[in-house]
Design brief:
Length: about 725
Amino acid sequence: MRKTITGTGGMLLVQTLKDAGVEYLFTNPGSAETGIFAALSEDQDQKLIVGKHEGLVAAMADGYHRTSGKVGVIIAHVMGGSWQLAGQLFNAQIAGSSLLVIAGDWASELQDFRGLAPFPGLTQAESMRPITKDARAAYQVAANPAAITVATTRALREATTPPTGPVYLSISAELLLREGLEAQIGEAAAYQIERPGPARAKTVEAIARKLGEAKCPVLMFGDDVWRERAGVEAVRLAEALEAPVFATRQIFPNFPTRHPLYCGMYPVSKDFEKVTGLKPDLIFMVGVQGVHGGVAEPFVIQIGQNPVLMGRHYPLDIAAQCELPDTLRGIAAALTRVHAADTVSGWARQREKVRAYAKLLISREEDLAREHEHDVIVHPSVLETHLAQLLPKNTMMVQESSTARTSLLSFGHDAMGWTRSGGGSLGFGVGAAIGAKIGVGRERPVVLHLGDGALTYSAAGFWSMARYNTAILTIISNNETYQVVRTNWAREVPDSKMVHTGKYPGLYLDAPATDYAGLARSQGVDGETVKTLKELEPALRRGIERTTRENKPYVIDVKVSREGIGADSTWCSRPIRPICFVGRDRSPRVRLAIGGDDGKPVRACGVADERPGEREEVLHEPLRLEAAGRGHARRNLHDDRRGRRYRGRDDAQSGAGRAVALAVLRRCRRRRRLDEEGQGARRDGAHGRDRGRRVRLDERDQRSDRRDPGHVEAEDPPQVS
């Protein structure tokens, strides 16, 4: 059915999305999208979910898509705002998430460059293309209003047709506001293309024959298995072959993680060959988006919806683009048809030690947890054990921690759900958990498990969590460091000075410490901090009670011990901290505190000064240092009188905040001069000249303050951080 609609460009867009079944719109509003929001205020059928950063918004839409299976639609801002999406669109691109980003566009034939717009010669859509589906799915509607509905339906089709991925669409801001437009749309249209069917019978039999002939076939199930709900078929095939199952980098639990044939992460370890006595001679990849690293097996078979990522850096002996459930059922049935009964029954005897190896992996993790069960500080394996015991079996977990342990947790089609970013760009967790909770509804619990390093990228999302009352239990594994980076550094350069001395630049995060539970409370989400093991179980029970029974979000900041090489290192590069204090005349003074290796101030030397034309960066720019004795440093101080002529203009533009800072700096400069000249005067015994000089300087500063239109007198010393 087709129907004609009229209205503004924004109305045409909103009606097209509604007819496609889009229920939620995720956004951080902008002025170029006025036409869209004006249309939404009149329609009011679609629900608007607001985040305080575009990255959060993209992660919300991604999390919603992953749990609901529906397209996540984002209303973004023009170029400057769209680029803020980059990290999370990268994650969506790697994961193959069906997202549609719609943004206003200030494209103009008269003015080719304006604020927040692309550099002259580039279009907004062109600039976003590298982080869309196949690095090509970015489109622009600049002049023809009829193209609004056409381009929107095209974008929805692109996002949902395999290989799936994010699509970007920019629409002229002028068209979105223009009235009296008319276009046709497909009423109640899903805008989806039917996917490929199962593999041909000849291909199915060829795969079954090769699997049965292999001494040790390795199975690898990718994310399309989860998307196509082929988990049951995957388990049946693995059990028919009694074959080991390995996982590569994935965003879903495509095979049950506590199944007795699940053998951990690919590549196959030497430990597997030693325990089982088997050497893999074939790998069968099902719905795998790509392999992280090389493929060692001599015979490679791959099937799935996405041919783009098949065999990109490894040879393919048999490959098919097909849907998965029926194809896997056909292969399992063909095994008994093309192989003799004694051959089929012999697979279990031949590979009986595969289950022993899988059991060994679990027992090692359990032994590690028992080893640390009496520690004062929570060990990650002990946290893992508590989560496995306490979390409801229908929990959906969003994970953003590369070092969190999950071997004892049961994930899969018949157990807890699980997802991670995919691309590894930090800032995914909080937003994705909000979107996931919207996708699964109130009845299914959602747990966000992330590290303290990842949380700092998306902590503003607690505000959205509170506003929309998304009852998420957030568990922070707080080890006060970028542990995965330290581990990688130690592996890459084991003989380096930083590994031998334990001094890893920039990785220790506890100087100063961050109160993450307090940060959540400041945005409306209650929480607590767990510092010892005895506090862990009661806190988890409170959190589960709060989220499942009271339907409120809750945060638990768990201080966990660090693991691996350099785990004991708390070294950080010497901080230089401006300290503000009050002089005898209550004038603020700023000195630079030079920290030692332990991060504590050991000496205050030098007075912060103003530099011409750079007052905005006075307290933030990297300080130029000189050696000043053992373990100390001092700043080269500059005094350029020419900077004074800019002060009044800058203060008037930047407001009272900068004016207070400048007032502090003026007094600092004055005090520095007085201190220097006072020392010289005392050496010469000329105290009278010093007093006269002090009076003249006081009078000059008072006159300068009266001339300064932005000056605000500081009653109390400002906190300089």
